[in-house]
Design brief:
476 residues; alpha+beta; seven-stranded mixed beta sheet; four-stranded antiparallel beta sheet; 27% helix
């Protein structure tokens, strides 16, 4: 028999998977016991004992790639490892468990060998198609170097080989990333600030359930002890309670309830306040003797509205529905401008009477008087009556655009937003400049006023506000 052939046969026997070898003590005879030798070799075999030796193969370390687990998933989280470095594995042994955004999958080995390297730790993201572990597939063979030649046994003596049962693959302790849980449970653990590997699972197969997480949180953050709770008086639970409307709130309730019957429509536009701001600064630097307080923008705006009402008298009228079925309009020559004031007692809307006859400093004085009385809740009934047009300066508190509500004795109201600096392209040369602008939001009674009327009125007010010299010329 060819000696090389005998060596290969011997190696095949040595590579037989341990699962197929008997687990009890077994007598294994030499190769020539199973293979009949060539006649010319029988005499030589009787005279000399043969010695078998071979050189160990070089280690073949194969990278175990993470296969595509479907549904276009490109990466998944390594939940736990079932093996460590230098752990011996066989085909179909579990290596690890990975978690995609939809399910968890257990990865099994495709080779027999020894784990040499884990490319990821528990909790890291593994990329599909990249190495997951390195497996030495030649470490199953007991390697013998050329220099380590063992004394040969007689070919006629049986070889005794005790085969031990295969040990279970080594498992990682719970402190090293071993935890089974669904994606929902892992998300809950992250929300509660819980390390999932520290939670003992009581569900099927040792999986961690939501109850396990909540139980862990309760043990980690215990509530007050019974002794402390018994000594601390329990705070009574707050109950709902009814309170009566204040007189101001009751009046607002009745007024706004009547306003619900008015069909509103809104119109808004931005005004440039740069020229008005510059004019105010010049006047406040050299105030008239009658001015006791610096001028704000509101007196100028109210005067611009009054001047524009001379041209658009419809917006200073009142709809009279006392003689149905033919309602009529009441045109009023007085410009009684109501201003909304927020006070600790509620919203009050006093009226500046005969604005068409007042100068800007006089309007400013009247605003200061009404504001002081409103803050002290000392406004007289006459101060709260007779308004023909309302101005709500919501910008003094905040906000840009507002949808004001019309009262039943008027047909138009304007809300003024906060003035702020914005970038604007100029119309004549297209340059980008900085301007201080505010939004004017109008609401009108659509039963008698259409959008074109309000748009023309807004343009008239805008012209006077953006060019205050025109307003001063009309006051002369």
């Amino acid at each position: 028999m060819n000696p090389n052939r005998a060596v290969r046969a011997f190696q095949c026997l040595r590579q037989t998977p341990p699962a197929f070898l008997p687990t009890r003590r077994t007598v294994v005879y030499p190769i020539h016991h199973y293979l009949k030798p060539h006649p010319h070799q029988q005499q030589q075999q009787q005279q000399q004992q043969r010695q078998f030796h071979f050189t160990a193969r070089t280690c073949a370390v194969k990278p175990f790639l993470l296969a595509d687990i479907g549904e276009g998933i490109r990466e998944c989280e390594v939940i736990q490892w079932f093996v460590e470095a230098e752990t011996r594995v066989e085909q179909f042994d579990k290596l690890c468990e990975v978690q995609s955004d939809k399910a968890s999958v257990e990865i099994t080995s495709r080779y027999d060998g020894v784990i040499k390297k884990l490319h990821y730790d528990a909790g890291e993201m593994a990329v599909v198609g990249k190495p997951l572990v390195d497996i030495d597939v030649q470490s199953e063979i007991g390697a013998v170097s050329d220099g380590d030649i063992a004394p040969a046994q007689s070919l006629n003596e049986p070889l005794l080989d005790v085969v031990q049962p295969e040990e279970e693959p080594q498992r990682i302790s719970p402190g090293h990333g071993l935890s089974l849980a669904t994606p929902a449970v892992r998300h809950l653990a992250k929300e509660q600030g819980v390390d999932i590997t520290q939670v003992s699972g009581t569900d099927k197969g040792g999986r961690v359930s939501k109850e396990d997480v909540f139980r862990y949180v309760e043990n980690r953050d215990p509530g007050p002890s019974p002794t402390s709770s018994s000594t601390t008086p329990r705070q009574p639970e707050e109950q709902e309670k009814h309170i009566s409307l204040t007189p101001i709130q009751h009046h607002m309730f009745k007024t706004m309830s009547r306003s619900l019957s008015i069909p509103h429509f809104l119109y808004s536009d931005d005004y440039n306040l740069d020229n008005l701001t510059s004019l105010r600064a010049q006047i406040n630097q050299h105030p008239p003797p009658t001015n006791t307080h610096p001028l704000t923008a509101l007196p100028f705006l109210i005067k611009a509205i009054s001047l524009s009402l001379h041209e658009h008298t419809l917006l200073n009228s009142c709809l009279d529905t006392s003689t149905p079925p033919t309602p009529s309009l009441l045109l009023r020559p007085q410009h009684n401008i109501s201003i909304a004031i927020s006070t600790p007692h509620g919203l009050l809307v006093p009226t500046i009477k005969h604005v068409q006859s007042l100068s800007i400093p006089q309007i400013a004085h009247e605003i200061h008087r009404l504001t002081s009385l409103a803050s002290q809740n000392r406004l007289s009934p006459q101060d709260l009556q007779g308004g023909t047009f309302t101005v709500s300066n919501i910008g003094s508190i905040g906000g840009n655009v507002v949808a004001p509500v019309i009262v039943d004795s008027q047909v138009c109201v304007v809300g003024i937003g906060r003035a702020k600096a914005v970038p604007v392209f100029t119309e004549h040369d297209g340059r980008l400049v900085k301007q201080t602008r505010a939004c004017f939001s109008y609401a009108a009674d659509h039963r008698v006023v259409d959008g074109a009327v309000v748009a023309r009125f807004s343009n008239a007010v805008k012209r006077l506000v953006e060019t205050p010299q025109l307003m001063l010329a009309r006051l002369a």
